[in-house]
Amino acid sequence: MSDESPQVLISEADISQRVDELAEQISADYKDKGxxxxxxVLKGAFILLADLSRRLTIxxxxxxxxxxxxxxxxxxxxxxxxxxxxxxxxxxxxxLVVEDIVDTGQTLHYLIEMLKxxxxxxxxxxxxxxKEHSTEVDVEIDYLGxxxxxxxxxxxxxxxxxxxxxxxxxxxxxx
Length: 175
Ligand code: PRP
Known about the structure:
Layout: E1 7-10, H1 12-29, E2 36-42, H2 46-55, E3 60-72, E4 75-84, E5 94-102, H3 106-116, E6 122-131, E7 143-148, E8 152-154, E9 170-173
Parallel strand pairs: 2-3, 2-5, 5-6, 6-7
Antiparallel strand pairs: 1-9, 3-4, 8-9
């Protein structure tokens, strides 16, 4: 990442307001369903998951999962593999996958199909950012923060070479 600060794309205040709205909507949608499992996809989702989980007004538990893209040289091949699994069974549970970004859609598609085979009561996705024009695989995003263009973004969990994850806003960089 260059020495210049990323240019603000979505401010801390706008993120906070959107997370409030998402939490309110999710709390209303699940209010009669008992506990939901918030399933954060490491690493990028850790900040959204922390903020969202503390704003919900419904019973919730937290789990994490980690995946990695297979690379062909330096180029992602599109295939995804599981590198860390959840600790508790999700069978019969209401699962909400929490992601920072959907780019090609490969990761979320893989996760949803893999998790569905474990027979949860329901499975939905909450995603902060959607790069609509890069999406190659159709994925359903039930709760979306913002749609963005095809730009490099960091902050709010997103990194460039592990830099910028803890910025409180979402910014654009020229790597
Ligand atoms: C990012 C992001 C998603 C995935 C989305 O993860 O967190 O999991 O890419 O891309 P896709 O829609 O093209 O599959 P990354 O591999 O950068 O790992 P990280 O979350 O640990 O930064």
